[in-house]
Amino acid sequence: MLRALAVPLLLILPVAASAQVVATPPDASTGPDTVFVEELTWTEVGARVRDGVRSVIVATGGTEQNGPHMVLGKHNFIIRATAERIARELGDTLVAPVVAYVPEGGVSPPTGHMRYPGAITLPEEHFMALLEYAARGFALHGFENIIFIGDSGGNQRGMAQVAEKLNGEWESGGERARVLYVPEYYRGNGFREWLLDQGIEEDAIGRHAGVTDTSQLWYVAPEQIRPDARRPGGGFEGSGVSGDPTQASRELGEKGIELKVETTVRRVCEMLAGLERD
Question: For 187-192, which contacts have Cβ atoms below 8 Å and span 24 or more sequence positions?
């Protein structure tokens, strides 16, 4: 009987022994001058945590129609650029790979952005599971501040709910990790109000693929804009454009990106200061 048990035990022991986070070598380098997790090796990430990096940005974008003049990955290009700036201004902060698959509408029948070729959607519960396990993984590996920001309105509810769920669990369990959800990145950065002050009409600013979106993408990734395809309202019924992208400019986009970054950095610092007081 003992001999019969010996083999299963031998098989189990290596699994149990490996069920720990692998230690970073003491001489590991922190790697090149990048804040992007995907551009680092695992030893470089471990070395950064060893040296005091405790925050990581989980940024959500999307893959959706943006009219005939702007690529489907608009949100991803914009938030990758803003997340890098935010991370560098905060210091001791990394950026996770941008989440490009988010809720964009139904499939059967097609609703929302899924009525347009090229859009990609996730049901809300799967989007939330993705966020949850990204955050759990970073917490496991020594990150204490998991910062959620989203460049699309449809991402906000899921991020808020996951933050509430994990913070409740971690706080009651005495864990140091927490999720800092920053809705002000998307709503409350002041860009729309600033555009109105510049004399741009509300109808021209629009709600989708108009002045705000087009200007920001033009600033961070001008090659992703089709300037000659810009038309008020997209130029035809069902274009997917709300607003007048012909009034967009790289200069306006620079201000929009600046406001997003400033607002988010300020809000994260306020949240971290509040946690320290508690």
Answer: 187/153, 187/156, 188/263, 189/256, 189/259, 189/260, 189/262, 189/263, 189/264, 190/259, 190/263, 191/255, 191/256, 191/259, 191/260
